[in-house]
Each structure stands twice: as structure tokens, then as C-alpha cells.
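Sequence only, no structure available. Ideas?
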Amino acid sequence: MAKDFAIIETGGKQYRVSSGERLKVEKLAAPDGAVVFDKVLLRSVADRVEVGAPYLTGATVKAKLVSEGRGKKVIVFKYHSKTRQRKKKGHRQEYSEVEIANI
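Reply:
I predicted one. C-alpha cells follow.
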């Protein structure tokens, strides 16, 4: 028997999730620590697959906020030869780590 899973969309990206799994997503505002993903594209429960067009109506994935943080620094360096133009910029993406409670 296959493990139950769902495909959700958050932060402009799509993730394949199952119960008990931890993943890092774009930073979410969750003051009470509970997160509900309502943009569910696909759900597979007990060998029954439901596909949305584009989203499933009434389907939600509940998660718990575990931690928040910032990713590794990414250096953006622009350089134009012969004109002595240099520009260095750094970026650290903020993320929220969530644990999927149930599908």
C-alpha cells in the first residue's frame, strides 16, 4: 500500500508532502504556530487519487510551524569589463520550517 501524500502550492512553488514530513518553505505568518495550506493540487489517500482543476475544493493540509530562519548567503556580483563597473550584493532568503500534521 502506498503512503498517503498531497501536492500543495505555497510561495509560488509546489511541494510533495506526506504526514510527519518536515520541509522548508517561504516565510509564513503564523502567530499561533498552526499553518493550513488550502491550495492543494493533488491528493492521494488510500490508493484513491484526486486531481484538482487547478485546486481541490474543500481539501486542506494542516501543518505545525517548527522554526523560522534565514538560508545561506547568496552573492550576486555584476561586472562589466573595460568600464570599471562592479557591483556586489548579498541575499539571505527567509524561510519557515513546517511539519505536516495530516492531509
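Residues 2 and 47 are 7 Å apart (CA to CA).
Hope that gets you unstuck.
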